[in-house]
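S.,

Sequence below, as promised.
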Amino acid sequence: MSSAEGLSRNPAQASAGLPGPGELEVLAVEAAGVAASLLREEAGAKRQVSAKSSRTDLVTDMDVACEAAIVEFLASRRPDDGILGEEGSGRDGTSGVRWIIDPIDGTVNFVYGHPGYGVSVAAEVNGEVVAGAVIDPVLDQVFTAHSGGGARRDGAPITVRPDADPALALVATGFSYRHDQRPRQAEILREVLPLIGDIRRVGGAALDLCAVACGRVDAFFEVGLNPWDYAAGALICAEAGAIVQDLHGGPPSPTFVFAATPGVAPALLELLQRTRADQVEPS
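The prediction came back faster than expected:
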């Protein structure tokens, strides 16, 4: 990314005194990097672990420490911005900018020492996500994007896989922390799996979305995510050329997040709509 791109801002933002998307992308990378450094230093150490929404929805002392470090960094650079963090950091801002933070996306993987966890930081301006960064501290990779600027991995442009065959598609997904929803999710997979190439379950939605963006998988879908799970990854996906939406053509949301290379998206969406993949509540 050139310095001109990195400091770009559109006229509306400039007149409002807001930073450009490229500037916010740089800050997102730096903020996520603070937490990624902590995770690398503490990898393998014994952790304090507790549960949140269910026995399988884990939080560690490192989730809390990483979020605090990100918030402290952002407050030192932009004290008037809003914050939405997974571990409870939240404040209203006055600048028009809000940061959406997942300090460890894939905490269970982190606890087990399994790859597939990362740090996600997105910047929202007046309600629209315009910049984001996702860092994989295990593979030491940095995924970034800002609106209209394309997507990158370690600074190099990335795009989705071209000309994918839906019948051979490699599709990533995730499962609910609520055990009563999992039988329904299993039914959906039973209908989907014979009509695609295969399924991958990594455990961190942010990195799954980045996997679509760089062509490691053809598509991703999941129900019940929170904004911090997908804000940065969805932007990175879209800027890499993916179709990113909910199940019925709206923006991605906690109800449903879908991302796929254009060659796979129509057929997979039709299949997921037919199986009512966004309806996982027990009957």
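Residues 107 and 195 are 31 Å apart (CA to CA).

Coffee later?
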